Amino acid sequence: MSVAYISLGCNIGDCRDNLAAALRRLEAQPETSVTEVSSVYITEPVGGIDQPSFLNMAAALETELHPEELLELCGAIEHELGGRDGRESMGPRTIDLDILLYEQLEIAAGELMIPHPRMLERAFVLVPLNEIAPELELPDGNTVREALASCGDDHGVEIDAGDPELNWEE
Whole-structure pTM over 0.70, yes or no? Predict the structure, then answer.
């Protein structure tokens, strides 16, 4: 079994339901188990496109899937939940799943980029990841906690004070 970390985000539709559905679909795969999920965070959009705030979270997985297969699974879940339909870069979406890390691998092969190429620049990725894995060593030798401390992203990231826990397990 390998350990992978993913980021989940949504800013249109019923985001809490979409996040929960994505986690259930990951868990439903016989080769993948969701072992930990962060709280839900409300985050300002990045990229200059006028759009609603996002709900973001991070999840840890144990998986027997190879990185390429995990990427395919994430894409299939996005497609099932409408996350790829008419999606523009940095635009609104019903669901977005990004592989952040897969063990200590560094991969750059077409669509597959591990670690995620912009994760160290994005507080909306690092804050939830720090909640579930602050001491996780990144491929550059820093921990998630250290990466968050040096992140210059000034976009707001706040825990969803109304309901930070996502009830996704059936």
Answer: yes
What's the pLDDT tens digit per position in 23-70? Answer: 999 999 999 999 999 999 999 887 667 788 999 999 999 999 999 999
Please state, in angstroms and rounded to a whole number, the distance separating the CA atoms of residues 119 and 110: 18
Per the structure, the complete domain to which residue 122 belongs is given by 2-159
Residue at 164 is within a domain? no
> Does residue 149 form part of some domain?
yes
Q: How many structural domains does the chain have?
A: 1
Residue 56 belongs to a domain with what CATH number?
3.30.70.560
